[in-house]
Structures are given as structure tokens and as C-alpha cells.
Design a protein that fits this description.
The structure is a single chain. The protein is of the alpha+beta class. The chain has a domain of 58 residues. It has 2 helices and 4 strands, in the order βαβββα. Strands 1, 2, 3 and 4 form a 4-stranded antiparallel sheet that branches. β3 and β4 form a beta hairpin.
Amino acid sequence: MKSPELPLAGHAEVRIVAANPKAARHIAEILRRCFAATEARSYPAGADGGTRLHLTVDTTCMAEPVRSWLVTSQSSRDDHKQPDEI
């Protein structure tokens, strides 16, 4: 299996999976208030009617509350992948 292509430096790909489109859009909207971001791309998420949104955020263009939190937070040493990730 080919590894996924990495986003540009300073950008992050975000995947949101929710039971309904409204919940997924709400989270995407919050992310857009914190970071510059692309329009979310929407996909079905399984047979149960869930929604999956993908968007790219620009981590070099942050709103002030996020900037303050990121500066004071420390990265986790627990960097293992989730079971459903490649």
C-alpha cells in the first residue's frame, strides 16, 4: 500500500467523522475560526448514514486563542496510530 502524500509544510489534513452532517460541519466551522482552512470535502461514512469531512488547515495562520494554547502545550510522547489509520 502506498503511503499517503504529505500536506505542504505548515499545513495539516484533518478528517472529521460524525453521525450526522450537522455535527461534522459544526466542528469544521470551529476549526476554520482557529486556522485558515480549505472548504471541507464531504463523503459518506459507512452504512449507518454518518458523514466524513476532510479539510486542510494552515497552521501558520492561527487565531490568537489557538496560538496561545499551542505555545504553552507540550507534544504528547504517545504518537501511536489509531487502529483505523494507515
